[in-house]
Each structure stands twice: as C-alpha cells, then as structure tokens.
Write a structure and sequence with these properties.
279 residues; alpha/beta; Rossmann fold; Hypothetical Protein Tm841, Chain: A,domain 3; 2 domains; 6-stranded mixed beta sheet; 11 helices; 42% helix
C-alpha cells in the first residue's frame, strides 16, 4: 500500500483525512506573530472575526519538520505519495522536495505537483486514494493523475480589491478605482499552476461567471468534468454560480465548499473560486 499525503489545500482537516487513511500536514496562518494550523487550530469564522478586528493575517507552507518526520516514519512501511498544492502559488512542493532530500533512503518517496488547489486538489487526492485501495503503485497513480492535472482550470473572483492590492495583483490606484466603482475582477490560474493572472474585470458577478463559462468551453470543458465552487462566507453568490454552471453544463456534477482559513487569507472575505477538472 502507498501512504497518501497532502496538505489543507485539499480542504481536508487532518482528522477528516485520517478517516480516509490520508495524512495531512496543514498550511499555517500567522496572526500577530502567532501561528495556527489551518482548519485544525483556526476555523474560518474565527479568522473572519480577527479580520473584522483589523488584524492582518498571512499564510505559510506546512512545517518542514513535521513533513520530514512523517516521511521518515512512513517510508519504513512502504511507498509515499505526497500530492502538494501548486508549485509557485505556494512553497509546499519545494518544501516537500527538501523534506524528501533530508531522508537518507528516499527512493520510495514520490512528490507530485498537483498544479492546482482546493476542489481539484481534493479530487486528485481522493482519486489517488481510490487507486491505492486497488493496489496501484505510486508511479502508477501518478501516471493516472497526470492527464487529470492537464485538464484542470481555475478562476478566482475576489470581492475585496484591497486583498488583490496587498498581493501585488493590482496597483493602489486600480484598487481604489475598482473598489469605488464596485467592479468585479476575475483572476485565472496559469496553466503551469505557478501564479494567478488577471483574466478580466466586469460590472456584475453574473457577467464574470458567464465569461468564465465561455473560457472553459473554449478549453474543451463539457459536462463530463466535475466543477468546484469554493467560497469565503459568500454562499449566496456561490449557489448562484452553481445554478448558472448547471444550466450551462447539463448533467455535470457541481460541488460547493467553504474555503479554509489559509485561502480566505489569500483571496479575502467573500471571494469565490470556480474550478473544474476531468477525473
């Protein structure tokens, strides 16, 4: 059997994943020099309360020491497959490679860059776990997951321009004008998963979703794909997006998730991620 490892980009807490036989090393949220493990030690509602109290949180990759200890423990039992959040959007992949290199006998440790995050990342980990239960090796699982990774595409709709400005995505002037005019920005994940790019700015949320759907169709997305909508305390708009996607891709599976604290830090309160992958 292969030990499947990942991080809270999957939107799994350590306990939820453990119930499926998966090990999770959480991302971290730092607030006023105090570090919290994503989902395990800090809930999304607690984070929102901190933000409302004018506290500015940041996020960081999983603990290198914790991952190294997990590798050392599990590599004695058999193969390890660590499916990480997208390299570039996080240092998680590079940190996992470093942890692997710190293990003396690491030939049975495989680190796989998912090139994605959140819903599709969760889908890849779930699929890996299913294949593991069927007796696939780590290399065979990676072979099965690779075309799925290539099919994935992701969009982010922030609802607060100040978070885009803080992340360097827009200038102070653009953030001020965008917020004043109540514009709706849309970011798109690059194909290699390394960064977010500005996709467009619209006057309405509905138009933003329409543009996303049109772009997905251009990329060959159809009802055989699974769609994921993740939100930061914005269930109302998330459910609207779900309805529009279901109307556009009849019979498609559309799943809605609340975002974890680590991703609320990145996208800001109210943000919505629209993602799809063919499994």
């Amino acid at each position: 059997m292969v030990k499947i490892i990942s991080d809270t980009s999957t939107l799994y807490s350590t306990q939820e994943a453990l119930e499926k036989g998966i090990s999770i090393v959480p991302l971290n949220i730092i607030v006023e020099q105090h570090s919290y493990k994503d989902l395990d030690e800090l809930s999304s509602s607690a984070l929102l309360a901190m933000i409302k109290n004018k506290k500015i949180p940041t996020s960081s990759q999983p603990s290198l020491g914790e991952k190294q200890r997990l590798y050392a423990q599990e590599s004695k039992k058999g193969e390890i497959l660590d499916i990480t959040m997208a390299q570039g959007l996080s240092g998680t992949y590079d940190s996992a490679c470093l942890a692997k290199n710190l293990i003396d006998s690491n030939e049975n440790i495989f680190v796989f860059n998912s090139k994605t995050l959140c819903g599709p990342h969760r889908a890849l980990v779930d699929r890996a776990n299913q294949l593991n239960q069927k007796g696939y090796t780590a290399a065979q699982i990676i072979e099965k997951l690779t075309p799925c990774v290539d099919s994935e595409c992701s969009f982010l709709i922030p609802r607060d321009f100040s978070y885009l400005n803080r992340g360097g995505r827009v200038s102070n002037f653009e953030a001020h004008i965008g917020g004043f005019l109540k514009l709706v920005p849309t970011m798109k994940k690059s194909k290699d998963g390394s960064h977010l790019e500005m996709f467009g700015i619209t006057k309405t949320f509905k138009k933003a979703i329409k543009n996303i759907i049109d772009e997905m169709r251009k990329q060959g997305v159809d009802a055989s794909y699974t769609f994921y909508i993740s939100h930061a305390f914005n269930e109302e708009e998330a459910l609207k997006a779900q309805g529009w996607i279901e109307e556009s891709f009849l019979g498609a599976k559309v799943i809605v998730f609340p975002l974890s604290p680590a991703f609320i830090v990145q996208g800001g309160p109210g943000c919505i991620a629209i993602q799809t992958i063919k499994m």
